[in-house]
Structure formats: C-alpha cells, structure tokens
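Encode chain A's predicted structure.
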Amino acid sequence: MGSEREILFEFLQVGRSVKVTAIDVDTGVEASIVGDPHAGQETLRRVARQKLDYVIARQKG
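Encoded structure for chain A:
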C-alpha cells in the first residue's frame, strides 16, 4: 500500500495491554491489535498498519 495514505491511530490502555486501532481516512476501514505497551508506540503503530493493509487487501479480493 502507498505511504501517502492518511491513517489515524487510537491507543487505548486495557489492563496490562494496549489496544491500537488503525483507521484509513479515505475508506473508513479499521483494524485493531492488542499488544504489550512496553513494545513502544512505533512498533505497535507499525503492526496495526500492517494489519490494516492486510484487511484492505483482503477486501479488494
């Protein structure tokens, strides 16, 4: 997927984990992951974006 897309990220602490939701602004498609907050925001952001890319590719067929 192109790096020009605008993606919003939401971080929500859930107990000892953090839920990260990535939202593609153009399509409104969302993908969420749950991870260890000690992994760092950049790592969690990267993994959430990878899942979002996967979900969008799967929807396209």
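The chain has one helix and three strands.
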